[in-house]
């Protein structure tokens, strides 16, 4: 196949050589010398050197900010996610690539979103991708051939006719964009199972790695045809675990907050110049009646003097009209950070925002858990008012 190792045109080989030189002082040696790795980024941008370079540099930044290399190693998965997320890797397809099974019909999307921070959900979704990459690498070493992608099976059995919880769609769209930008060609095959499927699935996956519930032979240690002991059982999250039931309102009087009205279609950007590595940005905010977007942007200064904004915490809607939003971001690098309150999505309603922002010096900002280190301590409830306001 053109554009792959062993089948490069002269122009593609020249692009690969130039691409490698541009990352001489950026990538670790094992990636710099890996043609398979470099070509994934070139193919993703049709061998356009400038666009491929921008994509990979953003990925380097993404890996640093999300501490990607530690996601799987730390295995810091909350019990709620382990219990109610019904997805995991179950075996290998006929090309020896990992198979990921998601029993999406058993996934209580609404319950999980009401019980976990959206940034935490993002972190665990990225950990799924990282685990897949590690399995591919392990298979490549074991087999002596390159395995570059995974096969995904999504079992829709039991999916309610109403479909996904609507407020989660915007977040999953954001996560999907992160996957496309940072894991090119990661998904080798995808099968959405909701109709006659076995004949097609067997072309790519041996029956021994197809769950019995889908017509294959695979069960878990308990004989469950859905393989719940392998991928998780899913099911409805108890309301007692919803964040609205667990988070208490702040005891601070309203006079402690600064306030501002953000006009419809407008936004508020608060700039903070962090001079010391290890400072902690902390925030607490709420609105009167409606949700508002919020995220944290880091300003990068390139070698040519230009500036580039990067969302270290994605700007998505926060239901701070229900529960006060509290969170923090550990600033590992000095520079400019922007707290972005976004009302651009609302063409009708202005929002009154109450907020407290603090910058703590390093000696007062020692992280006490992995979530803070991953900048995921921002509480984020899904949008309850589905009218978009």
Structural class given helices, strands, pairing? alpha+beta
Can you give the mean pLDDT? 86
Assign the CATH superfamily of the largest domain.
Answer: CRAL-TRIO lipid binding domain
Q: What general outline do the C-alpha atoms trace?
A: globular
Which series of helices and strands comes N to C? HHHHHHEEHHEHEHHHEEEEEEEEH
Strand composition percent: 15-25%
Number of domains: 3
Query: What is the CATH topology descriptor of the largest domain?
Result: Phosphatidylinositol Transfer Protein Sec14p
Low-pLDDT segments: 367-388
Question: CATH first level of the largest domain: which class?
Answer: Alpha Beta
Helix content: 25-40%
Strands, count: 12
CATH architecture of the largest domain: 3-Layer(aba) Sandwich
Pfam families: CRAL_TRIO, CRAL_TRIO_N, GOLD_2
Protein name: CRAL-TRIO domain-containing protein
Domain CRAL-TRIO: 77-214
Domain GOLD: 244-359
Describe the overall structure:
It contains 13 helices and twelve strands. The chain has 389 residues and is an alpha+beta fold. The strands form three sheets. It has a four-stranded mixed beta sheet with strand order 1-2-3-4, covered by helices on one side. It has a four-stranded antiparallel beta sheet with strand order 5-12-7-10, with no helix packed on it. A hairpin with a 5-residue loop joins β1 (87-92) and β2 (98-102). The N and C termini lie far apart (49 Å). Residues 367-388 have low confidence and may be disordered.
